[in-house]
């Protein structure tokens, strides 16, 4: 049915009608007092969301652009960095670091297994000459659905005294606690199409005072991505280059919605939806990729396909018969897992609908090793008692 597609993917996520309507307004002059007022409100909301007193810069870019800005502004070619890799986006950090000529040390675990915190701690503690200039991490690894213990690793970096903490918060900001100041994070990069509940197109970079100081020492060339230009403009109530004005309208609206809901309520909602999704999946006899389950992200659940069934067959039935989109596995997990996103503008009803349609799709592809209705019932039980 036309215009009935339901997004249950980890991005882009559904957009509230109020945000869509806000975007329908005509653009205004981005050097006007009216836009300055929007920028100031949005900046205050972004600081609140990140739990920081530091600046949060907004670029017209994807989350990857925000990640690149984090590297280019705080580091220099040849510097040593530790990069956590346990999924596609950790690999992206490592590839980016290597592309820019950093001395990149990968700390790897299989996809779905959280970072080995003790290895980061050991390497940082052993670095008496302070050669490690940054620890680069993915908080919620979207490709596998694992949440990494950024807080513990950041504490080790603080004890080290020199290493910055640069974090991919693309599917964690707005879905789980990201306490930038309390945890001692220096750069947190994210994108608009996730927990922010608006379409793709804006990249956010929250930057600590330590990171801003590092930007004065960095020798990487940058212009569009410059923190210095971004901060100078922000102090003047503007942006260094033409912003995506209509996306700012939407962001203004969704930040107002988020503040009305409250941070703790947002985190509890995402945790509840994640728990319900996983209970439903397991009731259908399916296995989760993440081990242990306690390390699973509240933003996305990675589900292993039944033996002998290609995961993309399940996704195809969900999309063609029920207009429900789930995400594919990536790289070596393609065809082996599918991913259910439950972040942003997602409700209890959405999870229940997903469980019901998933059960029907499983029947269609020839899998019936479950009691009819078990997935929906298990999810409903969690939702009723959370």
Task: Indicate the topology.
Blueprint: E1 6-7, H1 17-23, H2 33-50, E2 55-60, H3 63-74, E3 80-85, H4 88-99, E4 103-108, H5 117-126, E5 132-138, E6 140-141, E7 146-147, H6 150-160, E8 164-168, H7 180-183, E9 187-191, E10 202-207, H8 209-217, H9 227-235, H10 245-261, H11 263-283, E11 287-288, E12 300-304, H12 311-322, E13 324-325, E14 327-328, E15 337-341, H13 348-364, H14 374-384
Parallel strand pairs: 1-13, 3-4, 3-5, 5-8, 8-9
Antiparallel strand pairs: 2-10, 6-7, 9-10, 11-12, 12-15, 14-15
Short recap of the structure:
This protein has about 375 residues and is of the alpha/beta class.
Characterise this structure.
Its cofactor is pyridoxal 5'-phosphate. GO terms for molecular function: transaminase activity. This is Alanine--glyoxylate aminotransferase family protein. It comes from Thermostichus vulcanus str. 'Rupite'. This protein folds into 2 domains: 17-260, Type I PLP-dependent aspartate aminotransferase-like (Major domain) (Aspartate Aminotransferase, domain 2, 3-Layer(aba) Sandwich), CATH 3.40.640.10; 263-384, Aspartate Aminotransferase, domain 1 (Alpha-Beta Complex), CATH 3.90.1150.10. Helices cover 44% and strands 16% of the residues. The protein has 14 helices and 15 strands. The strands form 4 sheets. The protein has a 7-stranded mixed beta sheet with strand order 2-10-9-8-5-3-4, sandwiched between helices. 49% of the residues are buried. The model has no long low-confidence stretch (mean pLDDT 98).
């Amino acid at each position: 049915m036309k215009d009935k597609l339901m997004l249950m993917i980890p991005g882009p996520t559904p957009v509230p009608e109020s945000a869509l309507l806000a975007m329908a307004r005509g653009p205004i002059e981005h050097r006007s007092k009216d836009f300055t007022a929007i920028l100031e409100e949005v900046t205050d909301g972004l600081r609140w969301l990140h739990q920081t007193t530091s600046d949060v810069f907004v670029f017209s870019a994807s989350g990857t652009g925000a990640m690149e800005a984090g590297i280019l502004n705080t580091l220099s070619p040849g510097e040593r960095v530790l990069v956590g890799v346990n999924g596609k986006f950790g690999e992206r950090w490592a590839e980016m670091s290597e592309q820019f000529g950093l001395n990149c040390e990968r700390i790897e675990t299989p996809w779905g297994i959280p970072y080995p915190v003790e290895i980061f701690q050991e390497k940082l503690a052993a670095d008496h000459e302070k050669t490690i200039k940054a620890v680069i991490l993915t908080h919620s690894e979207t490709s596998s659905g694992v949440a990494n213990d950024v807080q513990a690793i950041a504490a080790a970096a603080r004890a080290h005294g020199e290493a910055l903490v640069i974090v991919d918060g693309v599917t964690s900001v707005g879905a789980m606690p990201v306490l930038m100041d309390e945890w001692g994070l220096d750069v947190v990069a994210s994108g608009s199409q996730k927990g922010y509940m608006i379409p793709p197109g804006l990249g956010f970079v929250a930057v600590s005072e330590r990171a801003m100081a590092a930007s004065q020492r960095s020798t990487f060339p940058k212009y569009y991505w410059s923190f210095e230009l971004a901060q100078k403009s922000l102090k003047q109530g503007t942006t260094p280059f033409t912003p995506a004005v209509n996306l700012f309208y939407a962001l203004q609206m969704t930040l107002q919605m988020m503040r009305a809901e409250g941070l703790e309520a947002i985190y509890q909602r995402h945790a509840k939806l994640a728990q319900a999704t996983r209970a439903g999946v397991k009731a259908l006899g399916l296995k989760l990729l993440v081990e242990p389950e306690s390390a699973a992200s509240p933003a996305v659940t990675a589900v292993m396909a039944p033996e002998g069934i290609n995961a993309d067959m399940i996704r195809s039935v969900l999309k063609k018969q029920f207009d429900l989109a789930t995400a594919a596995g990536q790289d070596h997990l393609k065809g082996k897992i599918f991913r259910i996103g439950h972040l942003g503008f997602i409700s209890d009803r959405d999870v229940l609908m997903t469980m019901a349609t998933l059960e029907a799709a499983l029947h269609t592809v020839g899998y019936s090793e479950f009691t009819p209705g078990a997935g929906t019932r298990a999810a409903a039980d969690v939702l009723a008692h959370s």
